[in-house]
Structure formats: structure tokens, C-alpha cells
Write a structure and sequence with these properties.
By secondary structure, the chain is of the alpha+beta class. Helices cover about 30% and strands about 25% of the residues.
């Protein structure tokens, strides 16, 4: 089976290949497959948005006459409890798509200035949807719990990782190793849940 992931994000593809490398003959991004779609993510939940993307790419695969494939898509984001779970499903679009994460992170820290640790609780959420060639659909959801730190720290992660502090490690998710992150991350957990479904 070939897995086609509905993303052009190289960081995500690296994580996906590291975690799911033993379940598929190939794991490609939609760009690797020459699929160029502008998909409107107009769902109201992470699950809805991930399924919108998976179905859109699966339709292209079907129209191309492809067989024995599984299209997967994720929608993930950061929920900050004291901000009413913002930025949530708008995490990538927070302050605009083209705003660098260094600025997004800086502004979030500004918003939380003076907020004590016990009220800085947050989580990364990842929903992954899969559409198989026979039309079977699956969706899973997983989280990684933590707090918003007080400064930007770490070079290993991407996105909001440098401000997402993991109390059990005493570090942000951008300061732990990729192997440690894959073991505990929202995406790592969701990918392993999806792997169980596909094997089942």
C-alpha cells in the first residue's frame, strides 16, 4: 500500500516517515504525487478539516485510476485554555498565513504576560483522517498536554514548539530530541492510532 499525505510540509513528512515507515511501501506527500490542490478548510473541528483534505486528495487519486493507496491528512493546532482554546483550528492562520512563527509566538507570549503557570495550560491537538481506495474512511484524534512557557526556547521543533513547555521534561517541545518528541507528540500518538486502524 502507498500512503499519500495531504501536505506539502516537509517537517510533517519527516515525522510521518519516521513513525509509519514500516506500514507502507511508499509514503509520499501530495506534491510528490504531482497533486496541486487549493483545499478550503472550512470545517469547524480538527476532524472535519482533516477529512475535507483527505477526501479531496483521494478524489484526485481515484480520478487518476490509482489503486491500493491510502490518502491521509491531518489538521493540528494549539489550544490555549485561558485564550478560550485559541488559536485552535486557526493555528496556521493566526495573524495570517505568511506571518513567521517567531512573531506568532512572540505575540502569544505578550497576551499571556503576567498569567501564572497554573493558568497557562495548553495542548497540541492532531486529528488524522484516512481515505482508502475502496472508500473506507477512518479518523483519529490525539493530544499532547503542556503549558505555554515564558520565553521562546529551542531549535528542534517547528511552529509553536518553542513556546510549548513540557513540565515533565523541564523543556519546550523544541528542546527535546526528535525521537523524544515522536514518542509523546500529538501527531506521533495520532499516527500510531491510525496505524492500528489500518492494520486492523
Amino acid at each position: 500500500m502507498k500512503i499519500i499525505f495531504a501536505t506539502g510540509n516537509n517537517n510533517k513528512m519527516r515525522e510521518i516517515r519516521e513513525i509509519m515507515g514500516d506500514i507502507a511501501s511508499e509514503i509520499n506527500s501530495m506534491k510528490d504525487e504531482g497533486i496541486d490542490l487549493d483545499i478550503e478548510e472550512n470545517g469547524s473541528t480538527f476532524e472535519e478539516n482533516s477529512m475535507i483534505k483527505a477526501r479531496a486528495v483521494a478524489k484526485v487519486c481515484k480520478d487518476k485510476g490509482m489503486t491500493d493507496y491510502c490518502v491521509m491528512a491531518d489538521d493540528s493546532g494549539l489550544e490555549i485554555d485561558c485564550l478560550d482554546k485559541a488559536p485552535g483550528i486557526y493555528s496556521a492562520r493566526f495573524l495570517g498565513h505568511d506571518t513567521p512563527y517567531s512573531e506568532k509566538n512572540r505575540q502569544i507570549l505578550e497576551k499571556l504576560e503576567g498569567v501564572p503557570d497554573e493558568k497557562r495550560t495548553a495542548r497540541f491537538v492532531c486529528a488524522i483522517s484516512a481515505v482508502l481506495a475502496d472508500g473506507t474512511e477512518h479518523v483519529v484524534r490525539a493530544t499532547m498536554e503542556g503549558i505555554i512557557g515564558h520565553e521562546i526556547a529551542g531549535e528542534n521543533g517547528f511552529g509553536y514548539d518553542p513556546i510549548f513547555f513540557l513540565p515533565e521534561y523541564g523543556k519546550t517541545s523544541a528542546e527535546i530530541s526528535p525521537e523524544e518528541k515522536n514518542a509523546i507528540s500529538h501527531r506521533g500518538k495520532a499516527l500510531r492510532l491510525m496505524e492500528q486502524k489500518l492494520r486492523g
